[in-house]
Amino acid sequence: MNELLIARIGFDLSSGTGWTVPVIKRADWPLGRLVVTEKGITIQTTFLRDTVLAWTEMTSVQATWTGLTICYEVAEIPHELSIVAPSLARRLRIAASKHSLPIPGW
Fold first, then answer.
1. What is the mean pLDDT of the chain?
2. DSSP annotation string for 64-84
3. CA 13 to CA 30: how far, in whole Å?
4. How many Å apart are CA 90 and CA 73, to the nearest integer?
5. HSE-up of 100 (CA within 13 Å, CB side)?
6. pLDDT of 82 strictly over 90
């Protein structure tokens, strides 16, 4: 696996829709780790299983003030991954343009 970008992050992974959306996984900054490859991204933590997302699974990737929001679906259930990391959106845009990554919405 060729790692194009590695960053320390904090994140919240939520699942479902409605008034209350449960958080499945959470890690405060800098306990999470984001690894970007040509195939997608991997979210790693010390105590939880890795979350692996391919670029084709993602429905949208949006830059926010604090990092990124990635939306995707698994078994027709919407998921939202909110990533907190300083200047991550800028670093991901640079990696995407340098390596021609197929990021949805960019």
1. 92
2. -SSEEEEEEEETTEEEEEEEE
3. 16
4. 25
5. 0
6. yes
Q: pTM here?
A: 0.90
- Asked whether 84 and 64 are in contact (CB, 8 A), the reply is no
Express each pLDDT in 15-52 by its tens digit: 988 888 899 999 998 899 999 999 999 999 988 899 99
HEC string for the chain? CCCCEEEEEEEEEEECCCCCCCEEEEEEEEEEEEEECCCEEEEECCCCCCEEEEHHHEEEEEECCCEEEEEEEECCEEEEEEEECCCHHHHHHHHHHHHCCCCCCC
